[in-house]
Amino acid sequence: MIAYTLRSDAGRALLERREAPQPAAGAGQILVRVRAAGLNRGELLAARGIGAKPASAPKPAGGEAAGEIAALGAGVTGFAPGERVMGRAAGAFAEYALIDAREAIPVPARLSWEQAAAVPLVFMVVHDMLIGQGWLRAGEWLLVTGVSSGVGVGALQAGKALGARVAGTSGSAAKLERLAPLGLDLALRTRKGDFYDAVMAATGAKGANVVVNTVGGSVFPECVRTMAFEGRLATVGHVDGVLRSEIDLEALHSKRLTLFGVSNRLRSAEQRSATVRGFVADLLPAIADGRIEPLIDRVFDFAQLPAAKDYMESDAQVGKIVVRMN
After folding, report:
1. Residue 158 pLDDT more than 70?
2. What is the span of the domain harbouring residue 8?
3. Pairing assessment for the beta strands 296-301 and 258-261 based on DSSP bridges
4. Helices marked H in 196-268 — which ranges?
């Protein structure tokens, strides 16, 4: 089969197309014929050595896919060959990929392959930070830095579905305008940590109840400063490459703040599958009935995956970038 690998070279993330053996479904696994796969910035950042050591050798590329079940491994029940599924899939940029059966999600009938491929990683991360750890409630304020990213847009959409009011930052006025139809209540055009005054004015000087930091250390102090009493701050990305920041301990103490990270790197398979179950219960119904519509910026053919990666690195997109199989 055709598959792509990812490696690092002098700080660059390089994709390589090659022939690879078709994987076989082991115990507890599902073999999927991939129809579409989503791009994720975190994978490219790791390959470039930001936040992790550069890869010493090529490794299978891609982390999420949607496709038809081709085979079931031993012990897998509740699924059948030919069924449409989506989920986290190591080596998703390939004609066939494996999904842990505990993380396989039936694709809602209304979703295209491309839309389905845009769902798993983004919305499971969003569930983790807004519901699992952030306890976002209707009527609260949600602030999302870097709101035009895949996770940022997903947080905006889920936040609105949960009844929150949402503020978002972006350095591009055009990107913020594209998000207005999704219900963005407060558009903040900035790439810097200078949004405190605007958020305080919008929230009646109370601050944001939940803050999602997709940018990194350069805006972390302002995120803390902007938090409301008993606010919750999710750190989910560091696209600015700034991995260190001071913490205002007085604010942390007096406002009874909660600061947490969102990553699956060290989680067990059962912990990851628990997030899948939470997503299926809390957010998938809104996707299935159209209250949440996965926002796709561009779709590339599978053979154009390197161009899709370059487009992601240009930071031009609003929402997700997807590749599809012909």
Report:
1. yes
2. 2-119+295-324
3. unpaired
4. 196-202, 220-226, 249-254
